Amino acid sequence: MLVLMLEDIRKLVKRTLDGGKVDGVLALWRENGRVGPHLFVKGDDVSTLEIDPKYNLAAVAILALASGAKKIALIGRGCDERALVELFKRYQIDEDAIEFIGMACSAEQAQACECDIPYPTKIQFGEKVDGVVPNELKNVDDMSLDERFAYWRDVFAKCIKCYGCKNACPVCVCQDCVLEDPMWVKKGEIPPEFPMFHLIRAYHMADRCVQCHECEEACPMDIPLTLLYRQLRQDMKDLFDYLPGASDAKPPLTTVLEDEKLEEGA
Amino acid sequence: MTFEPNILAFCCNWCSYAAADLAGIGRMDQPTNIKIVRVMCSGRVKPEFVIKALSDGVDGVLILGCHIGDCHYVTGNHRTMKRFQVLERLLEHIGIDPRRIRLDWASAAEAEPFSNMIREFTEQIRELGPNPYAGSYA
Description:
The complex is a heterodimer of chains A (266) and B (138).
Chain A: H1 2-19, E1 24-31, E2 34-40, E3 49-50, H2 58-66, E4 72-76, H3 78-89, E5 98-102, H4 107-113, H5 135-142, H6 145-156, H7 164-168, H8 196-205, H9 214-218, H10 225-240
Parallel strand pairs in A: 1-4, 4-5
Antiparallel strand pairs in A: 1-2, 1-3
Chain B: E1 7-12, H1 16-25, E2 34-39, H2 47-55, E3 60-65, H3 76-94, E4 101-105, H4 111-128
Parallel strand pairs in B: 1-2, 1-3, 3-4
Protein backbone atom coordinates (compact mmCIF):
# COMPACT_ATOMS: atom_id res chain seq x y z
CA MET A 1 0.00 0.00 0.00
CA LEU A 2 2.73 2.41 1.05
CA VAL A 3 4.88 1.23 -1.88
CA LEU A 4 2.05 1.86 -4.34
CA MET A 5 1.51 5.30 -2.85
CA LEU A 6 5.19 6.07 -3.18
CA GLU A 7 5.15 5.12 -6.86
CA ASP A 8 2.12 7.35 -7.45
CA ILE A 9 3.81 10.25 -5.69
CA ARG A 10 6.97 9.84 -7.74
CA LYS A 11 4.89 9.91 -10.93
CA LEU A 12 3.07 13.02 -9.77
CA VAL A 13 6.34 14.75 -8.93
CA LYS A 14 7.71 13.94 -12.38
CA ARG A 15 4.55 15.31 -13.99
CA THR A 16 4.60 18.42 -11.82
CA LEU A 17 8.24 19.13 -12.66
CA ASP A 18 7.68 18.54 -16.38
CA GLY A 19 4.59 20.75 -16.26
CA GLY A 20 6.85 23.67 -15.42
CA LYS A 21 4.40 25.52 -13.15
CA VAL A 22 6.76 25.23 -10.20
CA ASP A 23 10.51 25.73 -9.94
CA GLY A 24 10.95 22.63 -7.85
CA VAL A 25 9.35 20.05 -5.62
CA LEU A 26 10.44 19.88 -2.00
CA ALA A 27 10.37 16.34 -0.69
CA LEU A 28 12.60 13.71 0.87
CA TRP A 29 15.19 11.76 -1.07
CA ARG A 30 17.51 8.89 -0.41
CA GLU A 31 21.16 9.62 -0.92
CA ASN A 32 24.06 7.45 0.23
CA GLY A 33 21.64 5.33 2.20
CA ARG A 34 20.22 8.24 4.18
CA VAL A 35 16.96 10.08 3.81
CA GLY A 36 16.86 13.87 3.94
CA PRO A 37 15.13 16.89 2.42
CA HIS A 38 15.77 17.75 -1.20
CA LEU A 39 14.43 20.24 -3.72
CA PHE A 40 13.76 18.23 -6.87
CA VAL A 41 14.13 20.23 -10.06
CA LYS A 42 13.36 19.35 -13.67
CA GLY A 43 15.53 16.49 -14.88
CA ASP A 44 16.21 15.04 -11.41
CA ASP A 45 15.83 11.31 -10.89
CA VAL A 46 12.53 11.02 -8.99
CA SER A 47 13.16 7.36 -8.14
CA THR A 48 15.27 8.58 -5.20
CA LEU A 49 12.18 10.27 -3.70
CA GLU A 50 11.06 8.89 -0.33
CA ILE A 51 8.14 9.61 1.99
CA ASP A 52 9.41 7.92 5.13
CA PRO A 53 10.69 8.60 7.80
CA LYS A 54 8.89 11.77 8.81
CA TYR A 55 10.76 15.02 8.33
CA ASN A 56 8.98 18.34 8.70
CA LEU A 57 9.67 20.22 5.49
CA ALA A 58 7.90 23.48 6.32
CA ALA A 59 11.00 25.18 7.69
CA VAL A 60 13.10 23.82 4.82
CA ALA A 61 10.68 25.56 2.45
CA ILE A 62 11.96 28.90 3.80
CA LEU A 63 15.48 27.92 2.73
CA ALA A 64 14.30 26.58 -0.63
CA LEU A 65 12.56 29.87 -1.37
CA ALA A 66 15.52 31.88 -0.14
CA SER A 67 17.75 29.99 -2.58
CA GLY A 68 15.94 31.61 -5.52
CA ALA A 69 12.96 29.38 -6.26
CA LYS A 70 9.82 31.46 -6.86
CA LYS A 71 7.23 28.77 -6.47
CA ILE A 72 7.65 25.25 -5.17
CA ALA A 73 5.47 22.26 -4.51
CA LEU A 74 5.84 20.52 -1.18
CA ILE A 75 5.03 16.88 -0.46
CA GLY A 76 4.01 16.76 3.15
CA ARG A 77 1.90 15.30 5.91
CA GLY A 78 -0.71 16.93 8.12
CA CYS A 79 1.92 18.47 10.36
CA ASP A 80 3.73 19.98 7.36
CA GLU A 81 0.51 21.65 6.28
CA ARG A 82 -0.18 23.01 9.76
CA ALA A 83 3.36 24.31 10.10
CA LEU A 84 3.05 26.00 6.71
CA VAL A 85 -0.18 27.69 7.79
CA GLU A 86 1.58 29.04 10.90
CA LEU A 87 4.51 30.25 8.80
CA PHE A 88 2.19 32.00 6.29
CA LYS A 89 0.46 33.72 9.19
CA ARG A 90 3.75 34.90 10.63
CA TYR A 91 4.96 36.27 7.30
CA GLN A 92 7.78 33.76 6.96
CA ILE A 93 6.57 32.28 3.67
CA ASP A 94 4.39 33.77 0.96
CA GLU A 95 1.28 31.67 0.71
CA ASP A 96 1.29 31.83 -3.11
CA ALA A 97 4.81 30.43 -3.28
CA ILE A 98 3.80 26.98 -2.05
CA GLU A 99 1.70 24.33 -3.69
CA PHE A 100 0.96 21.78 -1.01
CA ILE A 101 0.56 18.12 -1.92
CA GLY A 102 -0.86 16.33 1.10
CA MET A 103 -0.43 12.77 2.29
CA ALA A 104 -2.44 11.21 5.09
CA CYS A 105 -0.43 9.18 7.56
CA SER A 106 -1.05 5.48 8.06
CA ALA A 107 -2.28 4.16 11.40
CA GLU A 108 1.27 3.00 12.25
CA GLN A 109 2.74 6.40 11.43
CA ALA A 110 0.07 8.13 13.52
CA GLN A 111 0.85 5.77 16.40
CA ALA A 112 4.58 6.40 16.10
CA CYS A 113 4.02 10.15 16.52
CA GLU A 114 1.04 9.77 18.86
CA CYS A 115 -0.44 12.35 16.53
CA ASP A 116 -3.88 13.84 17.19
CA ILE A 117 -4.51 14.97 13.58
CA PRO A 118 -2.52 12.60 11.33
CA TYR A 119 -3.83 14.04 8.06
CA PRO A 120 -3.83 17.35 6.17
CA THR A 121 -7.02 19.19 5.21
CA LYS A 122 -6.37 18.41 1.54
CA ILE A 123 -5.56 14.70 1.17
CA GLN A 124 -4.18 13.67 -2.20
CA PHE A 125 -2.52 10.45 -1.10
CA GLY A 126 -3.38 7.87 1.52
CA GLU A 127 -6.44 7.55 3.68
CA LYS A 128 -7.47 9.43 6.79
CA VAL A 129 -7.01 7.53 10.06
CA ASP A 130 -8.09 8.51 13.57
CA GLY A 131 -5.89 10.55 15.86
CA VAL A 132 -4.06 8.92 18.75
CA VAL A 133 -4.27 9.91 22.40
CA PRO A 134 -1.07 9.04 24.31
CA ASN A 135 -1.60 7.02 27.49
CA GLU A 136 0.82 9.28 29.31
CA LEU A 137 -1.56 12.22 28.85
CA LYS A 138 -4.10 10.71 31.21
CA ASN A 139 -1.40 9.75 33.69
CA VAL A 140 -0.19 13.32 33.89
CA ASP A 141 -3.73 14.69 34.05
CA ASP A 142 -4.58 12.41 36.96
CA MET A 143 -1.58 13.45 39.05
CA SER A 144 -1.84 15.91 41.91
CA LEU A 145 0.00 19.22 41.53
CA ASP A 146 2.91 18.03 43.66
CA GLU A 147 3.21 14.73 41.80
CA ARG A 148 3.16 16.57 38.52
CA PHE A 149 5.85 18.95 39.65
CA ALA A 150 8.03 16.01 40.71
CA TYR A 151 7.33 14.26 37.41
CA TRP A 152 8.39 17.20 35.26
CA ARG A 153 11.30 18.04 37.51
CA ASP A 154 12.69 14.54 37.05
CA VAL A 155 12.02 14.52 33.33
CA PHE A 156 13.61 17.91 32.73
CA ALA A 157 16.61 17.01 34.89
CA LYS A 158 17.80 15.00 31.89
CA CYS A 159 17.98 18.10 29.67
CA ILE A 160 21.46 18.81 28.34
CA LYS A 161 20.37 22.15 26.82
CA CYS A 162 21.38 21.13 23.31
CA TYR A 163 18.68 23.40 21.85
CA GLY A 164 17.71 20.50 19.62
CA CYS A 165 14.02 21.11 20.35
CA LYS A 166 14.33 24.72 19.29
CA ASN A 167 16.38 23.99 16.19
CA ALA A 168 14.16 21.18 14.97
CA CYS A 169 10.96 23.15 15.48
CA PRO A 170 9.45 24.33 12.19
CA VAL A 171 7.61 27.21 13.83
CA CYS A 172 10.47 28.54 16.01
CA VAL A 173 11.36 31.44 13.75
CA CYS A 174 12.48 34.30 16.03
CA GLN A 175 15.84 35.80 15.05
CA ASP A 176 16.73 36.44 18.67
CA CYS A 177 15.65 33.59 20.89
CA VAL A 178 14.76 34.31 24.51
CA LEU A 179 16.33 30.98 25.44
CA GLU A 180 19.72 32.29 24.31
CA ASP A 181 19.38 35.52 26.26
CA PRO A 182 21.52 35.34 29.44
CA MET A 183 18.93 37.51 31.16
CA TRP A 184 16.56 34.55 31.23
CA VAL A 185 18.80 31.52 30.80
CA LYS A 186 22.18 31.29 32.48
CA LYS A 187 25.01 30.28 30.19
CA GLY A 188 27.12 27.22 30.78
CA GLU A 189 24.76 25.46 33.11
CA ILE A 190 23.17 22.05 32.64
CA PRO A 191 20.58 20.95 33.29
CA PRO A 192 19.10 24.40 32.65
CA GLU A 193 17.26 26.01 35.50
CA PHE A 194 13.92 24.37 36.16
CA PRO A 195 11.17 25.47 35.67
CA MET A 196 12.52 28.59 33.95
CA PHE A 197 13.93 27.21 30.68
CA HIS A 198 11.19 24.74 29.84
CA LEU A 199 8.33 26.96 30.93
CA ILE A 200 9.55 29.75 28.67
CA ARG A 201 9.74 27.44 25.71
CA ALA A 202 6.37 25.90 26.50
CA TYR A 203 4.75 29.31 26.80
CA HIS A 204 6.19 30.40 23.48
CA MET A 205 4.85 27.25 21.84
CA ALA A 206 1.32 27.73 23.17
CA ASP A 207 -0.18 29.52 20.19
CA ARG A 208 1.98 27.94 17.52
CA CYS A 209 2.73 24.28 18.27
CA VAL A 210 1.40 22.15 15.40
CA GLN A 211 2.23 18.82 17.09
CA CYS A 212 4.72 17.64 14.49
CA HIS A 213 6.82 15.95 17.21
CA GLU A 214 10.08 17.14 15.65
CA CYS A 215 11.28 18.48 19.03
CA GLU A 216 10.65 15.21 20.77
CA GLU A 217 12.37 13.23 18.02
CA ALA A 218 15.34 15.58 18.08
CA CYS A 219 15.67 15.33 21.87
CA PRO A 220 18.60 13.05 22.70
CA MET A 221 17.32 12.64 26.26
CA ASP A 222 13.80 11.49 25.32
CA ILE A 223 11.97 14.27 27.14
CA PRO A 224 8.22 14.03 26.41
CA LEU A 225 7.93 17.67 25.33
CA THR A 226 4.88 17.20 23.14
CA LEU A 227 2.91 15.96 26.12
CA LEU A 228 3.13 19.42 27.64
CA TYR A 229 2.57 21.20 24.34
CA ARG A 230 -0.43 19.02 23.63
CA GLN A 231 -2.05 20.10 26.88
CA LEU A 232 -1.37 23.71 25.93
CA ARG A 233 -2.94 23.20 22.52
CA GLN A 234 -6.05 21.96 24.28
CA ASP A 235 -5.99 25.07 26.48
CA MET A 236 -5.85 27.33 23.44
CA LYS A 237 -8.88 25.48 22.10
CA ASP A 238 -10.75 25.83 25.40
CA LEU A 239 -9.81 29.43 26.09
CA PHE A 240 -9.83 31.01 22.65
CA ASP A 241 -11.27 28.35 20.33
CA TYR A 242 -7.99 28.42 18.49
CA LEU A 243 -5.98 25.53 17.14
CA PRO A 244 -2.52 26.39 15.80
CA GLY A 245 -2.14 25.51 12.14
CA ALA A 246 -5.83 24.75 11.64
CA SER A 247 -6.84 28.01 9.99
CA ASP A 248 -5.50 31.44 9.11
CA ALA A 249 -7.06 32.88 12.29
CA LYS A 250 -4.71 35.31 14.02
CA PRO A 251 -2.88 33.92 17.05
CA PRO A 252 -5.08 35.00 20.01
CA LEU A 253 -2.13 36.14 22.12
CA THR A 254 -1.43 38.90 19.59
CA THR A 255 -4.97 40.22 19.31
CA VAL A 256 -7.24 42.26 21.56
CA LEU A 257 -10.30 40.96 23.40
CA GLU A 258 -13.31 40.13 21.25
CA ASP A 259 -15.77 42.22 23.19
CA GLU A 260 -13.56 45.29 23.14
CA LYS A 261 -12.99 45.54 19.40
CA LEU A 262 -11.33 48.70 18.27
CA GLU A 263 -12.72 51.10 15.75
CA GLU A 264 -11.13 50.88 12.34
CA GLY A 265 -7.93 52.90 12.34
CA ALA A 266 -8.01 53.50 16.11
CA MET B 1 9.85 31.71 63.16
CA THR B 2 6.58 32.33 61.36
CA PHE B 3 6.49 32.42 57.59
CA GLU B 4 6.33 35.87 56.05
CA PRO B 5 5.43 35.73 52.37
CA ASN B 6 7.65 37.51 49.92
CA ILE B 7 5.39 38.88 47.21
CA LEU B 8 6.22 40.67 44.00
CA ALA B 9 3.65 43.02 42.47
CA PHE B 10 3.84 44.48 38.99
CA CYS B 11 1.84 47.70 38.97
CA CYS B 12 1.13 49.76 35.91
CA ASN B 13 2.16 53.38 36.01
CA TRP B 14 -1.24 54.84 35.20
CA CYS B 15 -3.75 53.04 37.37
CA SER B 16 -2.62 50.48 39.90
CA TYR B 17 0.60 52.25 40.89
CA ALA B 18 -1.43 55.41 41.43
CA ALA B 19 -3.84 53.34 43.52
CA ALA B 20 -0.90 52.13 45.61
CA ASP B 21 0.18 55.74 45.99
CA LEU B 22 -3.25 56.84 47.05
CA ALA B 23 -3.46 53.99 49.56
CA GLY B 24 -0.20 55.28 51.02
CA ILE B 25 -1.37 58.88 51.14
CA GLY B 26 -4.60 57.69 52.74
CA ARG B 27 -2.50 55.84 55.34
CA MET B 28 -4.38 52.66 54.75
CA ASP B 29 -3.43 49.66 56.79
CA GLN B 30 -2.02 46.81 54.69
CA PRO B 31 0.61 44.08 54.93
CA THR B 32 4.15 45.01 54.03
CA ASN B 33 4.98 41.78 52.24
CA ILE B 34 4.62 43.35 48.82
CA LYS B 35 7.50 44.61 46.73
CA ILE B 36 6.21 46.74 43.90
CA VAL B 37 7.83 46.93 40.50
CA ARG B 38 6.44 49.80 38.49
CA VAL B 39 5.93 49.07 34.81
CA MET B 40 4.47 51.42 32.24
CA CYS B 41 1.68 49.01 31.39
CA SER B 42 0.59 45.61 32.66
CA GLY B 43 1.12 44.56 29.04
CA ARG B 44 4.84 45.02 29.71
CA VAL B 45 4.78 42.03 32.03
CA LYS B 46 6.09 39.19 29.95
CA PRO B 47 5.20 35.75 31.31
CA GLU B 48 8.96 35.30 31.65
CA PHE B 49 8.93 37.91 34.44
CA VAL B 50 6.46 35.86 36.45
CA ILE B 51 8.19 32.55 35.76
CA LYS B 52 11.55 33.99 36.72
CA ALA B 53 10.17 35.42 39.96
CA LEU B 54 8.78 32.03 40.96
CA SER B 55 11.92 30.29 39.77
CA ASP B 56 14.01 32.63 41.92
CA GLY B 57 11.98 31.95 45.04
CA VAL B 58 9.32 34.64 45.29
CA ASP B 59 6.27 33.21 47.06
CA GLY B 60 3.61 34.95 44.99
CA VAL B 61 3.28 37.29 42.04
CA LEU B 62 0.60 39.93 41.55
CA ILE B 63 -0.01 41.69 38.28
CA LEU B 64 -2.15 44.79 38.62
CA GLY B 65 -3.32 46.90 35.71
CA CYS B 66 -6.03 49.31 34.66
CA HIS B 67 -9.56 48.01 34.25
CA ILE B 68 -10.37 46.60 30.82
CA GLY B 69 -11.34 49.55 28.65
CA ASP B 70 -9.36 52.03 30.78
CA CYS B 71 -5.85 51.09 29.66
CA HIS B 72 -3.70 54.14 29.01
CA TYR B 73 -2.45 52.35 25.90
CA VAL B 74 -5.98 51.25 25.00
CA THR B 75 -5.38 47.49 24.68
CA GLY B 76 -2.26 46.70 26.68
CA ASN B 77 -4.23 44.96 29.41
CA HIS B 78 -6.17 42.88 26.87
CA ARG B 79 -2.98 41.10 26.05
CA THR B 80 -2.00 40.75 29.68
CA MET B 81 -5.33 39.11 30.36
CA LYS B 82 -4.94 36.56 27.56
CA ARG B 83 -1.35 35.75 28.41
CA PHE B 84 -2.24 35.36 32.04
CA GLN B 85 -4.89 32.76 31.29
CA VAL B 86 -2.38 30.71 29.32
CA LEU B 87 0.29 31.13 31.95
CA GLU B 88 -2.07 29.96 34.70
CA ARG B 89 -2.83 26.78 32.78
CA LEU B 90 0.81 26.21 31.96
CA LEU B 91 1.82 26.48 35.62
CA GLU B 92 -0.86 23.98 36.49
CA HIS B 93 0.36 21.52 33.84
CA ILE B 94 3.86 21.61 35.20
CA GLY B 95 2.67 21.26 38.79
CA ILE B 96 2.94 24.80 40.14
CA ASP B 97 -0.05 26.01 42.12
CA PRO B 98 -1.65 28.74 39.96
CA ARG B 99 -3.00 30.40 43.12
CA ARG B 100 0.49 31.80 43.55
CA ILE B 101 -0.14 34.23 40.73
CA ARG B 102 -2.99 36.67 40.39
CA LEU B 103 -4.09 39.26 37.88
CA ASP B 104 -6.33 42.06 39.00
CA TRP B 105 -7.33 45.57 38.08
CA ALA B 106 -7.27 48.76 40.17
CA SER B 107 -8.05 52.25 38.93
CA ALA B 108 -6.10 55.26 40.21
CA ALA B 109 -8.95 56.06 42.59
CA GLU B 110 -9.32 52.59 44.03
CA ALA B 111 -7.03 52.81 47.02
CA GLU B 112 -9.25 50.74 49.24
CA PRO B 113 -9.85 47.88 46.79
CA PHE B 114 -6.10 47.93 46.22
CA SER B 115 -5.31 47.45 49.91
CA ASN B 116 -7.95 44.74 50.12
CA MET B 117 -6.36 42.92 47.19
CA ILE B 118 -2.97 43.09 48.84
CA ARG B 119 -4.38 41.85 52.12
CA GLU B 120 -6.29 38.97 50.53
CA PHE B 121 -3.42 37.87 48.37
CA THR B 122 -0.92 38.01 51.23
CA GLU B 123 -3.25 35.84 53.33
CA GLN B 124 -3.65 33.39 50.46
CA ILE B 125 0.10 33.06 50.03
CA ARG B 126 0.55 32.73 53.79
CA GLU B 127 -1.79 29.74 53.69
CA LEU B 128 0.02 28.21 50.70
CA GLY B 129 3.33 28.45 52.54
CA PRO B 130 6.83 29.07 51.20
CA ASN B 131 7.53 28.63 47.50
CA PRO B 132 8.66 25.00 47.01
CA TYR B 133 9.49 25.47 43.34
CA ALA B 134 12.49 27.73 43.66
CA GLY B 135 15.94 26.99 42.51
CA SER B 136 17.64 24.78 40.04
CA TYR B 137 18.89 21.23 40.44
CA ALA B 138 21.93 22.38 42.39
